[in-house]
Specification:
The structure is a single chain. The chain is α+β, with helices and mostly antiparallel strands. It has three domains: about 5-15 and about 55-115 and about 195-340 and about 455-560, Outer membrane efflux proteins (OEP) (Up-down Bundle), CATH 1.20.1600.10; about 135-180 and about 355-370 and about 430-445; about 370-425. The chain is built from twelve helices and eleven strands. It has helices spanning about 10, 65-80, 95-105, 110-130, 185-250, 255-290, 315-325, 325-345, 370-395, 415-425, 450-520, 525-560; strands spanning about 20, 30, 95, 135-145, 150, 155, 170-180, 300, 355-365, 430-435, 435-445. The strands form four sheets. Strands 4, 7, 9, 10 and 11 form a five-stranded antiparallel β-sheet that branches. Strands 1-2 form a two-stranded antiparallel sheet. It has a two-stranded parallel ribbon with strand order 3-8. A hairpin with a 6-residue loop joins β1 (about 20) and β2. It is elongated and about 170 Å long. The two termini are about 35 Å apart. Residues about 1-90 have low confidence and may be disordered. This is TolC family protein.
């Protein structure tokens, strides 16, 4: 049996996907990646470990073996998936950092809400262009007036000779065109497009923040998995030392105190496993939350390796790259462009404005009964005949009589009655047009209480503020790149030193174990070496992932990826 004291994170560099504890037995259960399975279903009864979900990634020294193990883990996971799961919206079993970022870009609610602003900005551009065209409106209406006697001032319809008025149906229609053009309207499309660019830059900034959070969350999952592995190795070595202490007690070379201390070490190691497993679960849940998943227990195995390499980036080159890619600077530049349009729009208040109006309308009227209209027609015809007869009588009394008029032509006929009835059928669309109207006006603003001067001054001050803020952010970018790059370099050197310390702690633990085995050292010496070993392992992991966190923060400052994970 191999001595657990010879195992180390530096030599194997493996990580466990996750771990939980079976509530029935209290023993570790590696079925964490499969929450649908009861704890212990895929756990070896002798070792208490899962033969399926323990994922080993020999990242730095055995890349071919890494890919082989990943492929086998992926194939086994697909085999064990419930039928129909492929059709569900689930996290990929083997999840790379690029996949996690892409999923977060698509599903993160906060980023999707930020992208909705871009749709509003697009409509603002369309609306600004629409303001360059005239406005056209069409209207109409219908009304009804009941029968009865109406009053016109102090007289009634009957007194005016319009008794027994029927009910009427009315309809009216109108078409109007208006066109207003001024400096603000002409410059509105340019400002709307500049504002849209600013909105897109803000969305890009939100996306960059999300990418940083997902990257740090992904790294945290790997970090906690490594810490869990160290805790398991600590538990294995503590169990080995406990067995060794019992064996020495059996032959009389150890005391019961040594056995008790070894047993306490096993218990403390189990507690550490529970704590680190909880931290791993928390890191996984936070990463899934950033990715926008409702199921916070979706199984996945992070497969993107992060190598420890010497940072060779040039500070000035990173600064020039950051000037082009930094989201904050890009957003400020877009806001400056929009503010420059605001200055021009404020100055356009001094320009004249043009107003054009055109309209036309029509109406219809239809009575419910034409009897009154026919009667009025008959009375008018009768009056015309009487006038004609009177005129003929006058003509006949002259000394030289004039030829008489034919009064029969003025008689009211059935055709006249039918014509009146036909004219009463215009409702609702056979309308009578009214004269069209057209107007054109030009306004020259002279004095508006210094309001225009105030608006121009305010817009210029805002533009100057953005210029100063942009300069401040450029200085901050240079300082942030310098400090972040220095942090990366310091983290790299610290990781190298911790790797050396870990190797020394490995050797010290191996020697202490051999000395305790042959009886040349007591258990306190072995326990001290074990403590130094665990601390060295954890400090090495911390140093390595502080390095990766520092690079992620440097990439966030620059605004683009500067390495290939």
């Amino acid at each position: 049996v191999k001595n657990p004291a010879t195992s180390s994170v530096a030599s194997h560099d493996e990580y466990v996907a996750a771990q939980q504890t079976a509530p029935e037995t209290g023993s570790p259960c590696l079925a964490y990646e499969w929450p649908a399975m009861p704890c212990g279903t895929w756990v070896n009864a002798r070792t208490g470990r899962s033969p399926i979900l323990r994922v080993t990634n020999l990242r730095r020294r055995f890349p071919l073996l890494t890919r082989s193990l990943q492929f086998r883990a992926f194939a086994m996971a697909l085999f064990l998936l419930p039928r129909g799961a492929a059709a569900q919206d689930i996290v990929p079993i083997t999840l790379t950092l690029e996949e996690a970022i892409e999923i977060a870009r698509q599903d993160n609610p906060g980023l999707r809400a930020a992208r909705n602003d871009e749709a509003i900005a697009n409509w603002n551009v369309r609306s600004a262009y629409g303001g360059l065209f005239p406005s056209v409106s069409v209207g109409g209406g219908i009304s009804w007036q009941g029968s009865g006697e109406q009053q016109f001032g102090s007289l009634t319809a009957e007194q005016l000779g319009f008794a027994n008025q029927p009910s009427f149906l009315f309809s009216n229609y109108n078409l109007s065109l208006s066109y207003d053009i001024n400096g603000r309207t002409l410059m509105a499309p340019g400002q709307a497009k500049a504002s849209r660019v600013a909105t897109r830059a803000q969305v890009a900034g939100s996306e960059a923040d999300l990418v940083l959070q997902v990257t740090l969350g992904y790294i945290d999952v790997l970090r906690q998995a490594e810490q869990l592995l160290v805790s398991e190795q600590q538990r294995d070595r503590a169990a080995f030392n406990f067995d060794l202490a019992q064996a020495r007690l059996a032959v009389g070379t150890a005391t019961g105190v040594d056995v008790g201390q070894a047993e306490v070490s096993v218990g403390r190691a189990e507690v550490t496993i529970l704590q680190t497993a909880n931290l791993l679960e928390t890191a996984r849940i936070r990463l899934l939350q950033l990715m926008g998943f409702d199921d916070l227990y979706s199984p996945f195995v992070p497969t993107t390796p992060f190598a420890l390499s010497e940072p060779t980036w040039d500070r000035e080159e990173l600064y020039q790259l950051g000037l082009e890619s930094n989201p904050n600077l890009r957003s400020l530049r877009a806001n400056r462009s929009s503010s420059s349009y605001s200055v021009n729009i404020a100055k356009s208040a001094y320009f004249p404005s043009l107003n054009l109006r055109a309209s036309t309308s029509g109406f219809t009227r239809q009575a419910s009964s034409t009897a009154l209209s026919v009667q009025q027609g008959e009375l008018q015809a009768l009056g015309s005949i009487q006038n004609c007869l009177f005129t003929n009588d006058l003509y006949s009394r002259l000394a030289d009589p004039l030829p008489p008029q034919d009064c029969s032509q003025m008689a009211f006929t059935d055709e006249d009655a039918q014509q009146i009835r036909s004219a009463n059928r215009g409702f609702p669309f056979d309308f009578t047009g009214q004269p069209p109207q057209l107007s054109l006006s030009i306004n020259f603003p002279i004095f508006q209480g210094l309001n225009r001067q105030r608006q121009v001054s305010e817009a210029q001050v805002q533009l100057e503020d953005i210029d100063l803020n942009l300069r401040e952010q450029e200085l901050a970018l240079r300082a942030n790149i310098a400090t972040s790059l220095a942090t990366v370099r310091a983290a790299y050197q610290a990781a190298l030193i911790e790797e050396q310390n870990q190797a020394v702690a490995d050797e010290q633990l191996r020697l202490a174990t051999e000395r305790f085995r042959v009886g040349l050292a007591d258990f306190l010496e072995l326990l001290e070496a074990e403590t130094i070993k665990v601390e060295a392992d954890r400090l090495q992991i911390t140093a390595i992932y502080v390095y990766h966190d520092s690079i992620a923060n440097l990439e966030a400052v620059v605004g683009t990826s500067i390495r290939t994970p």
